[in-house]
Amino acid sequence: MRVLITGAAGQLGQELQHTCPAPVELLAFGREQLDLADPAACRAAVEKYQPDWLINAGAYTAVDRAETEPELAELVNAQAPGAFAAALQQTGGCLLQVSTDFVFNGEQGHPYRLDQPCDPIGVYGRTKAAGEQAAVEGLAPERLAILRTSWVYGPVGRNFLLTILRLHAIKAEAGDPLRVVADQVGCPTSTTTLAQACWSMIEHAAHGMHHCSDSGAASWYDFAVAIGELGVAAGRLSSAACVEPITTAEYPTPAQRPGYSLLDCSATRSLLGLPASHWRAALAEVMARIP
């Protein structure tokens, strides 16, 4: 089986390569090999390599910068999936489109189900929702899988875990507090969990809509506190900074973010036989793998 992945240099792309099953012939393309802002190049890559599956792990994920670069975000997050889907429809391959909790507005107080309509509140979420729709319109249902996830982090790349570890060290040494938003609720998801779900979906030839995150719920404040505690326990930090909870209003950003974005992952876990690992246990495992 030939699998092509995009975003090979990103945190999920690297984990997909690290966990690739032995029988798979893997083609891992980063930005240098495949520019997702070029729909024609996306179609040409599928036509040339004719993968059995394409995992679109690449995306424009700079949530705040997307507000000032909507055209680029649209190309990468919406037009690339549409180009992949149209090409795969011709070659006979399947698409696994990785999407996000940001396709929801975050106004409800219970986990979002698979069948709920999208209602994004920013450019990033709108372009990812458009990417889902473009894939649906371009590819036969039995050859398309969409996997939404949330708050992704891993031992490499650029993510909340590695940023907060660095800030813990700086703030603790200076004796200053680390102020983190406490009124946005979701669930951190390790790249380990997410990559396992991707490979399991291919193994089961899953199609349709799916949700995948680790279990439990957290605010960014909770996540930051846990990073400090586990960072000290793992020897990554000599001491942790005092973390102070603040409101979203106290930390204004160009892009509005969902206030509540938990995903109901029960159907996907049941279908794929995946364990429901608590986000804090997953965090401890990732902490041990930081280079």
Quick summary of this structure?
The protein has 291 residues and is of the alpha/beta class. It contains 9 helices and 12 strands. The mean pLDDT is 97.
Describe the structure.
With 291 residues, the protein is α/β, with parallel strands linked by helices. It has a domain at 2-150 and 189-214 and 263-277: NAD(P)-binding Rossmann-like Domain (Rossmann fold, 3-Layer(aba) Sandwich), CATH 3.40.50. The chain is 40% helix and 16% strand. The protein has helices spanning 11-18, 39-49, 70-91, 123-138, 160-174, 191-203, 220-233, 266-272, 279-287; strands spanning 2-6, 25-29, 53-56, 94-100, 144-149, 152-153, 178-181, 185-186, 189-190, 208-211, 218-219, 243-246. The strands form 4 sheets. A 6-stranded parallel sheet has the order 2-1-3-4-5-10, with helices on both faces. Strand 1 (2-6), helix 1 (11-18) and strand 2 form a beta-alpha-beta unit. Helix 2 runs parallel beside helix 3 (70-91). It starts with a strand and ends with a helix.
CATH topology of the domain at 2-150 and 189-214 and 263-277: Rossmann fold
Structural class: alpha/beta
Q: Quickly name the level 1 CATH class of the domain at 2-150 and 189-214 and 263-277.
A: Alpha Beta
> Approximately how much helix is present in the residues?
25-40%
What would the keywords be for this entry?
single chain, 291 residues, alpha/beta, Rossmann fold, six-stranded parallel sheet, 12 strands, 40% helix
